[in-house]
Design brief:
Layout (H helix, E strand, L loop, with lengths): L32 H14 L13 E5 L15 E5 H20 L1
Bound molecules: zinc ion (ZN).
Length: 105
């Protein structure tokens, strides 16, 4: 049986964006050995528990209470809290909004 061949589209998709978003890349700091071993240690000490909402047994993310962008200490355990995914996302968004407001407010 003859196979039907699809025609290729005659029009290509035009990217009309004026500014292209920067590619999302992880900060190399969060891939570094000192950060990873500190995180392993903190999870062992504090447990896999969100320090904001108290959920247990979830994946936790190391969050800088005072962010690196704001001059926070990168490897000081007292500047790091363990947060679940939703608390971490919420905190990051809140901090970003505050930083934007401070810049344009
Ligand atoms: Zn949480």
């Amino acid at each position: 049986m003859a196979r039907l061949k699809c025609l290729s589209p005659r029009l290509s998709v035009v990217d009309t964006r004026i500014a292209r978003p920067a590619p999302k890349t992880a900060d190399p700091f969060y891939l570094s050995q000192p950060w990873r071993s500190l995180m392993t240690r903190l999870v062992e000490q504090r447990g896999r528990c969100c320090q904001s909402c108290g959920r247990e047994g979830v994946r936790v993310f190391g969050d800088h209470i005072r962010e690196l962008k704001d001059g926070g200490a990168p490897l000081d355990p007292s500047n790091i809290q363990l947060l679940c995914g939703s608390c971490h996302t919420a905190k990051t968004a809140k901090t970003r909004a505050a930083r934007t407001a401070a810049r344009y407010g």
